[in-house]
Amino acid sequence: MLANVKDLAEAIADHRADPFPESVEKGEQYGQFDAVMIGADIWGWATTVSSGESLSPLDLRRLTDARDELARSISAFPVDARPFYQGILTMADLALAANRILGET
Known about the structure:
Blueprint: H1 2-17, E1 29-30, E2 33-34, H2 37-50, H3 57-73, H4 82-104
Antiparallel strand pairs: 1-2
Helix pairs in contact: 1-2, 1-4, 2-3, 2-4, 3-4
């Protein structure tokens, strides 16, 4: 469990340190979501899990759906912005894994 939470905490810190890609238009839709809100939403769920709190069933479904939408939409972003969104996808995957472990304890 500790390794997953540590990895998640590092992914959250990396996301906070990464500048928002200049090539992405704030407020624009890329795939099925707003380019800014997808990161903010996933970051919020990830920080909840990182603090040791399990997500509610509703938030777990929302995180899973957001993760899946982002995975399907990565190619809609400018090429230079994709690593930024890949980091968000990694953060979502780590949050889902840590949440599963929290549910087992």
